[in-house]
Amino acid sequence: MSRTRLWICSLAAAGLFASIAGAQTFPGKPIRIVVPYPPGGSGTIIARILGDKLTQAWGQQILVDSRPGASGMIGAELVAKSPADGYTLLAGYTSEVAINVSLFKKMAYDPLKDFAAVALTGIVPMILLVHPSVPVKSVKDLITLAKAKPGELNVATSGIATSTHLAAELFMHLTGTKMVTVPYKGGSPSMTAMLAGESQVNFAAMSTAIPHVRAGKVRAIAISSAKRSVAAPEYPTIAEAGVPGYEHSSWVGLLAPGKTPRAIVGRLSAETIKAVEAPDTKPYLLKFGMEPVGSTSAEFASLIKTEIAKWQKVVKAAGITAGISAE
Predict the structure, then answer these.
(1) At 255, is the secondary structure helix, strand, or coil?
(2) Most buried of the four, 22, 69, 82, 153, by CB within 10 Å?
(3) 264: domain CATH number?
């Protein structure tokens, strides 16, 4: 072996050993989980329970940092451009990780290149809500009312081109109805608007909606997923309630900056899966309408690619556009 080749191999080996050593001592300081929406949504709930579990496992504080705005892309960009050392993570949603790339002409990050998938943590079906003042008790009732009063019903969404916005657009596309989508800066603000009577319809994450449904403040009429929710099996899916082919669920997963060493991503992934599969995690998440999922890094990365391809087709077929640049 030549001296040059030996030198290169030595450098590669040194880098590998340094990576392994870094993973063995990781974490050596507090970790920040950035939630790209206001407090109170599914990402916050996931981040907090993961924070508790990871703190117990590692003895390091986990900080939950809410950075809302621009359809989740402000928080996502912050993480994408953070040091790739495992200390700044993203509680990433379907919107900013898989959907926005089909909606915005320019984005400040590439969801495939600038993130390393750690683990999928939860599936969040959306629930179709109406304000109690609206004379609607079923999906068919809503379709009838919307067709009778085109453009008169307001639909609150968690922001332009977010998962809840697309849920509403897909519903209108498949039913031939016309409602006015009103964007807010996250799921919690959109729910607050609905509780105040500013909007009559809402496609909300179950984690945001369930407490208000159970308190009788809003009326739930259907679930957006392909199957009935484990958390609320009493509600039919939108498809079985009269809109064949309708299916849309959001998800939340943990991501790190793209160049984070594999050994650190692997350690984060293993501990995250352990936290999600803990006996007390499932009932806690189900209480908020989330179905826990503990996937490997590779499985989550594969899902992201599949979801990006899926939403490219849906956005094109439905003619949905954000109409703005993300920058």
Answers:
(1) strand
(2) 153
(3) 3.40.190.150
Task: Decide if 45 contacts 291 (C-beta within 8 A).
Answer: no
Going by the DSSP 8-state scheme, the letter that residue 237 receives in this structure is B
Residues 58 and 116 in one domain: yes
Amino acid at 277: E
Counting the structural domains of the chain, the total is: 2
- State how far the Cα of 324 lies from the Cα of 304, in Å rounded to an integer: 23
Task: Please tell me the pTM assigned to this model.
Answer: 0.76
Tokens representing 63?
Answer: 């900080």
Instruction: Judge whether 202 and 129 are in contact, CB under 8 Å.
Output: yes
> Which of 303, 250, 292, 263 has the alpha carbon at shortest distance from 49?
292
For the stretch 175-211, pLDDT in tens is 999 999 999 888 889 999 999 999 999 999 887 888 8
pLDDT digits (tens, 9 = 90+) for 282-302: 888 888 778 888 889 999 999
